[in-house]
């Protein structure tokens, strides 16, 4: 089973997709400065 975890703040959002069977993080990311002209998106994923 896969779980999507979201943590949102006033101007940022963090997320992860976890594979619960083996407790592995498949994808994680961060969106910063939401709503501003120079926002930033970072994402990391397992190489599959």
Automatic annotation (TrEMBL):
It comes from the Bacteria. Pfam families: Acetate_kinase. Keywords: ATP-binding, Kinase, Nucleotide-binding, Transferase. SUPFAM superfamilies: Actin-like ATPase domain. GO terms for molecular function: ATP binding; kinase activity; phosphotransferase activity, carboxyl group as acceptor. Belongs to the acetokinase family. This is Acetokinase family protein. It comes from Petrotoga sibirica.
